[in-house]
Amino acid sequence: MTSNRADEAVSAPAAAARRYVSSPATVGPRTEDFNSELHARPSIYFNGPAIVEHVAFMPLDGAIKEFHDSLEADGEISVRVERHTEFVTITRLRKLDSEPERWPESDLVEDDFARLAGLDSPRLVCHASILVLGTPPDELGAVLKSFDFGDTAASSIGGGSAQVCSDFRVRGDNSSRIILFNKDLNAHRLGRMVRRMFEIETYRSMALLGLPEARRLAPLLGGYDAELVQLTNRNLRTPAHQHKQLLEEITVLSSHIISATAETRNRFGATAAYAKIVEERIALLRETHVPGFQRFGTFVERRFKPAVRTCEATVLRLEHLSRATMHLLDLLQTRIQVEIEFQNATQIQAMADRAATQVKIQRAVEGFSIIAISYYLLSLLKFIYETSDHAGFHVDPVIMLVAVPVVVGAVAITILRVKHALKAEH
């Protein structure tokens, strides 16, 4: 009884704690997506001889709307459809009763694979087939010749657990062929190894989609380089007052470079990402040398990396051109700004000179103003004096003589006080 009560005492807080722990269903769809990504896209596990076909398509509109995967199995045939960011893959496994002496013909065409993925006339990216056989033969060359393989690359993979061979030729049905001799891989390791081989082929093809863009840009970048040199030399010789046309041409060149960068940024970025995946998958093969054959991964890298480096070099050229063009534009704008500031300084100095002249004129006019106002006031006094004389009121002429300096002095004092008051306000 004591033991049971102790168990109940321990389990009660634990049960109470569990009531406050959210289940995966209550965490939200975002957490579920993160967790499910860890288990996404499992391999197709199998044993024995089989032919595995793998086809990758890109939708014509370039958009993948759904990212769910599906697996269908019907007897000896299994089909897995996987949706990636840019492409859709269909992997079809067909088990064989025995090891064939010739390459087994496919019972589906590309349109059939597209229908399995629910695509309508998509763009083919990759079509690869892997024939899985038993233990590697002692005379590998004769077996490869019977399967119509040409100059072949071969490697022992998985620490010697299997052997992979391919001539990397594209046949009439747009497919490349790979033979995988299974020495001691179990179903799970075999499925993962087959998937790894398909990923190398698929991501290699996806990475090479950037090569046509690099080739298309090569002559354009050469023209941009020459134009940039010509504009730079003109910037040294062009007078300051003729900078407008040069500024327009540099702006147009910069717009072309920015447009080319924007058009190819995503493609070249994807090329770099896919190339990295290919390198990682090749490293995971853990290849060892097969006497008389070039290694599978070495063959891929020697012919794949130059194309990737071409894309990388194109990206660098675009970045350098954009940076150099913006630098030239900044130099020209600085030059224009300095010229504008010099013109502004000249205009300010001219305005200051005009203001000084106006002050001198104003001072000269002030003297005339005193005379003019005094004249009008004295004329008014004279009119009053004459009117009073006609009215019979006689005023001593001496008063008029005294009024002249008084009026002139009063006017002068008044004008000077007004001028002093205005200066005090400013």
Task: Explain the overall architecture.
This protein has 426 residues and is α+β, with helices and mostly antiparallel strands. The protein folds into three domains: 32-191, no CATH class; 210-346, Up-down Bundle (Methane Monooxygenase Hydroxylase, Chain G, domain 1); 359-425. The protein is built from ten helices and nine strands. Strand 2 and strand 3 (77-83) form a beta hairpin. Helix 7 (210-237) runs antiparallel to helix 8 (243-284) and helix 7 (210-237) runs parallel beside helix 9. The relative contact order is 0.07. The model is unreliable at 1-28 (pLDDT under 50). Residues 9-25 have a biased composition (Low complexity).
From the structure above, extract its key features.
single chain; 426 residues; alpha+beta; Methane Monooxygenase Hydroxylase, Chain G, domain 1; 9-stranded mixed β-sheet; rod-shaped; disordered N terminus; membrane; transmembrane helix; transmembrane
